[in-house]
Amino acid sequence: MMGGMDGGRRLLERDVVKPKNVSVTLGRFWQYFRRYWVALLAVLVLMVITTWTQIIAPDLIGQAVDCYLYTENPFASMAAQAPSSTEENNPVATPARTCWYDATEYDSMEIEAANAAKISGLGGLVLVLVALFVIGSILRGIMFYAMTWAGQNALRQMRLDVFNHLNKLQMGYYSEHEAGDIMSRFTSDSETIQQVIGFGLVSVLSGVLLIVWIMVKMLQMSPAYALLSLAVVPVMYVATLYFSNQARKAFRESRKEMGSVNADLQESIAGVREVQAFNREQENIENFERVNAANRDANLRAAAFTSALSPVLEALGYVALGIVIVVGGLSLLRNEPLLGTSLISLGTVIAFVQYVQNFNQPIQQIAVLWTNIQSAIAGGERIFTLLDEKITLEDKPGAQAMPLIKGKVEFIDAWAEYKAGEPV
Question: Residue 92's closest CA among 341, 336, 340, 327?
Fold first, then answer.
């Protein structure tokens, strides 16, 4: 989803510029987006549906195990035959029925008929899972397209408003503001907004919804098992924030060093005649080597933090999987309730394994993309500040239209000034 390590690197390379007034800026954004409210509503509906498909799929896979493969704990007989097990001291617990997908009582059927019914039911469940995966993928693509369509149209209108406003501003404004800063409103700020609208905002919202929904689902299935399984999640979040922040600091330093490289290179090339005339070739080469080495070290430091993020999260994910498998496996092998609660089934363990695996990517996306959303809001503030610039030179009410010009221009007692009191 993030375009691999290089995609995450490009996102981390951006400077984090925090907005000053979030509510006002979001209100200004809504002025451009409200005309596309139907598309935004469709995005929200599709987001809920696609997240539901990601939630229900692991549960259905667990149901395939509990309903058709192992209707009872396959290790219960082993626990009953253990030397330490006695009816008085360690009675064998009988788990409650965990199969809600199929209410058929296979135990009351003949073996052959029961096996045939189980195979038929399992085949139907597999078709349901395939349909969920296909529908989820299609709806996810439609969701991103609808958000991109609405965002691009809103951003197009925003650019038109900025361009029209710039053409109406007085000339004095351009004498007080650099052209590069004005151009950045069209390029850097609008590009940041475009990327967030097309990918970042939907990914963060769907990631938050997925994480919360998974937590609720796991707590509904087994509260004690869920709390143990989610013990690593806060560590994953803190690790993601730490490495993301360190990577941004390193990339900021690398851009600074890259600016030094470009400046040194420009000066050396522009003054190459003077360098050769005063025989300073070796000194310039050594100075460039130092600057270039500093840029290399800064990029290596940034690459180290960027490349470390994914393995750390992967390792923590394996720790979470280990907790799920070990705790669930021991409960199944001993056929004992988990932490004094209720018995868990093999299908529950399999579903929890998949839920824990789904935590890794959303946490990483939220930590990395959230700061880019902040930068996009700050970029919107810069654009709206430009739109709020007052036009001081306007035609008076009832002004006459300029007659046809004959081509002869005379300047009589004419003067001009960009700043008050400073005639040109």
Answer: 336
Question: Side-chain half-sphere of 152: how many Cα atoms within 13 Å?
Answer: 8
- Burial class of 280 by CB neighbour count within 10 A (0 to 12, 13 to 18, 19+): middle
pLDDT tens for the chain, residues 1 to 424: 444 444 454 554 454 445 556 778 888 888 888 898 999 999 999 999 999 999 999 989 888 888 888 766 666 555 555 554 444 444 445 555 577 777 777 777 777 888 888 888 888 889 999 999 999 999 999 999 999 899 889 888 888 888 888 888 777 777 776 666 677 667 777 777 887 887 788 888 898 899 999 999 988 888 888 888 888 888 888 887 787 777 767 766 776 676 677 777 777 777 778 777 777 778 878 887 888 888 788 778 777 777 777 788 888 888 888 888 888 888 888 777 777 667 788 888 888 988 988 877 787 777 667 767 777 777 788 788 888 888 776 777 777 777 777 777 777 777 777 677 777 6
Task: Please state, in angstroms and as integers, the Cα–Cα distance from residue 115 to each residue in 56, 70, 103, following that order.
Answer: 25, 12, 15
- Residues sharing a CB contact under 8 Å with residue 360, sequence separation 6 or more, in sequence order: 236, 313, 314, 317
Q: Which residues pair with 419 in a beta bridge?
A: 422
Amino acid of residue 375 = S
Helix spans in 271-280 (H): 272-277
SS3 175: helix
Q: What is d(CA 220, CA 13) in angstroms, rounded to the nearest whole number?
A: 40
Report field, pTM of the whole predicted structure over 0.85: no
Note the helical H segments in 177-222. 179-184, 190-195, 201-221
